[in-house]
Design goal:
The complex is a heterodimer of chains A (361) and B (309). Chain A is α/β, with parallel strands linked by helices and 361 residues long. Helices cover 40% and strands 20% of the residues of chain A. Chain A is globular, with a radius of gyration of 21 Å.
């Protein structure tokens, strides 16, 4: 039911956008760039970060571009209608920013071969459809290092949304780094099977704190776990956006999605006529994954360690999945000197040593 | 590994998870007992959650926040009341519309509140009692709404089955024509019951945004309004069974989180589905005896009242 309403809003939003779009296109011929968001533009999370990317494009290119966005677009048939309307109304470059927009994007792209499409986090491409995503596991070793060095109980609570490779990858990247600085620490995972249930996120955090965790890591969108951690004096980490202002005493740093450089690059490519379909999976090196500010209360040795690690991860000197890595049964999955390959990472479905419990199958 | 402390803290979490359901369900119980089925609980809860945060930020007082949530929930339910009682629109359709409307409106109103933090409703501190081991945190360390949920359920139970006004309300729910014939103002009583249901749904929603968390997030009720509705059927419209059902749900809800955290080898999907599964199983068992089930349900539930004279 929420969907029905959302689509109504989407339709209204679209009408509003088209109206403003038409008035502006009279004089010059700016490049029209469209964005499709799954959430509200100011969701303090995923969609907001994409919108910051849009604003960066506007600021960079000024009158040469004209951007518009449609927010609250449900993943499903309605998305196709929204994307099609953007294509029909003269948008030459369209970013569809949620996994569930994959098939609708490809369908519309087939009918509009001259329009360029960019689909976030998907895996299907075409001559006029690129895909892009962030290596959002790359910052997790930094969190793992902080957790491993700061924990006193050696119990780390980890709140996961859904047991998909993306989230499991993050848990493993975190745990590998944590165990390197603290082999005694263990990670306890609670899957809430939701991205948006703030109360359940808080309850999961409280359950982990009840069980002795003094560090809470989250791979869910709501800032509720940060507040729960702050109340008990535990350490937490911001997700997707810089959440340090939410609970400054608790948030050690944040993992930030930053689409600005990529969006600027791709718009530039269309303006230059050099755009081709590509597959991008970037992390710290291109700032697609960015670290938020480190809390001032972090001890000097921890700060030094994570700053060095961030530099190494960014330069590529260190990879989050450098061996030796053992899985839960003790089997070596990457020997010393080896690194787990992207193909394996993309389908990762097992926990490494140091994680308690089993991956839900 | 599982110490007394963990058990006590888990019980505290269970109480916290149950309270919003219990508050909303208690209100809806009264509404349904009067013969009105308001499926808009989810929407009213969302409106309560968002207005509670808004008012708390504006006034810096959680008490005013709760009052505002109760008032907004009530106002929202009266919209439903106007449609179904005055205009005699279909209750199921109007209730669904209320949920859809509440989800959208709360998102719009709540947009500027996203990313803002409010002060959580403080827990009770009773000198000497709250500090007691085990008993203290379980009985004397909750936020005021936990006690409110239990007191209001007891009060509703007393009102429905021990007072004349409660009898009138039940009479309206069982046979509005008879109640009308002996002089009860059916529509007026139903308006009052709907308003009470809306107020409680608003408070239940505000519990999620002001006590369970301390922030507004779009769609944060995440189906709890529907669970409250299911609990009433589960309880066969009886207050004591409602209490039992709500706490059973809370136990499974927190239990699945606790089991995961302890790393016990139980499938999380199974644990996550368990609260719903239990609800369905109980519903099946209850409704096997259809005459008894029909006896439990208010006979006029969902039916529009056309005054004959």
């Amino acid at each position: 039911m929420k969907r029905i309403l959302q689509s109504t809003f989407a339709a209204i939003a679209f009408v509003a956008i088209s109206a403003t779009g038409f008035t502006g296109s009279a004089e010059a011929q700016p490049l029209k760039v469209g964005f499709v968001y799954v959430g509200p533009q100011n969701d303090n999370g995923w969609s907001q970060q994409h919108d910051l990317g849009r604003l960066a494009v506007e600021e960079r290119f000024g009158d040469a571009v004209e951007t518009s966005f449609v927010e609250l677009v449900p993943e499903g048939p309605d998305a196709e209608r929204v994307i099609r309307q953007l294509a029909e109304s003269g948008h030459e470059l369209i970013f569809t920013t949620s996994f569930g927009f994959m098939n609708p994007t490809l369908k519309v792209a087939e009918d509009f071969p001259d329009v360029k499409f960019e689909h976030a986090t998907g895996f299907k491409r075409a001559d006029n459809v690129s895909t892009y995503s962030g290596r959002f596991y790359e910052g997790r070793p930094i969190l793992g290092t902080i957790a491993g060095m700061m924990t006193e109980s050696n119990v780390i609570g980890y709140i996961g949304s859904f047991p998909i490779p993306e989230v499991i990858r993050g848990i493993n990247a975190f745990t590998i780094a944590m165990r390197r600085v603290n082999p005694e620490a263990e990670v306890r995972v609670i899957w809430v099977n939701s991205w948006i249930d703030a109360a359940k996120d808080a309850q999961a955090a409280e359950t982990l704190l009840d069980q002795g965790a003094d560090v809470i890591v989250q791979h869910v969108d709501s800032p509720a776990p940060l507040l729960a951690a702050a109340e008990r004096g535990a350490i937490s980490f911001g997700q997707t956006v810089d959440n340090s202002s939410f609970a400054p005493d608790s948030v050690a740093t944040s993992l930030i999605d930053n689409w600005e450089p990529y969006y600027i690059e791709r718009v530039q490519a269309v303006l230059d006529g050099t755009w081709v379909s590509t597959d991008t999976w970037n992390g710290l090196n291109s700032s697609m994954q960015q670290m938020g500010p480190y809390a001032s209360w972090l001890p000097a040795d921890v700060l030094a360690a994570v700053q060095a690690l961030e530099a190494d991860l960014t330069s590529g000197a260190v990879h989050a999945f450098d061996g030796p890595i053992k899985d839960q049964s003790g089997t070596v999955v990457a020997a010393a000197g080896e690194t787990i390959e992207d193909g394996v990472l993309l389908g990762m479905n097992y926990y490494v040593e140091g994680v308690l419990g089993n991956v839900p199958q | 590994m599982i110490s007394v402390d963990i058990v006590v803290l888990t019980i505290v979490s269970i109480i916290g998870a149950t309270t919003p359901l219990l508050i909303a369900a208690t209100g809806e119980l009264v509404t349904e007992k009067s013969g009105v089925l308001n499926l808009g609980v989810e929407g009213m809860m969302l409106m309560g959650a968002v207005s509670g945060v808004g008012a708390t930020i504006a006034t810096d007082s959680w008490i005013l926040g709760l009052l505002c949530a109760a008032a907004v929930g009530m106002a929202f339910s009266l919209l439903f009341g106007f449609l179904t009682l005055t205009l005699m629109a279909n209750q199921v359709a109007s209730g669904l519309a209320l949920t859809i409307f509440g989800a959208g409106l709360s998102a719009v109103i709540g947009a500027p509140l996203v990313g803002k933090r409010v002060h959580r409703i403080p827990d009770l501190e009773i000198a000497g009692l709250t500090d007691l081991p085990i008993i203290g945190p379980i009985f004397f360390g909750h936020d005021p709404l936990v006690y409110f949920s239990l007191i209001s359920l007891a009060a509703v139970s007393w009102f429905l089955f021990r007072t004349r006004a409660g009898l009138a309300l039940r009479a309206v729910g069982e046979s509005h024509d008879s109640a009308h014939a002996i002089g009860y103002r059916v529509i007026r009583i139903r308006y009052a019951a709907v308003a009470f249901g809306g107020m409680m749904a608003g408070l239940g929603g505000a519990y999620l945004s002001l006590a369970a968390t301390s922030l507004w997030a779009e769609g944060m009720t995440a189906g709890r309004g529907w669970i409250a509705l299911a609990l009433i059927v589960f309880a066969a419209w009886r207050p004591l069974r409602l209490l039992l059902g709500a706490y059973l749900f809370g136990i499974f809800w927190i239990g699945q989180l606790a089991v995961q955290g302890l790393g016990l080898p139980i499938a999380t999907e199974f644990m996550g589905a368990l609260p719903y599964l239990v609800t369905i199983i109980v519903l099946v068992i209850i409704s096997r005896d259809s005459t008894k089930f029909l006896l439990d349900a208010p006979a006029c539930i969902g039916k529009a009242f056309h005054p004959t004279a």
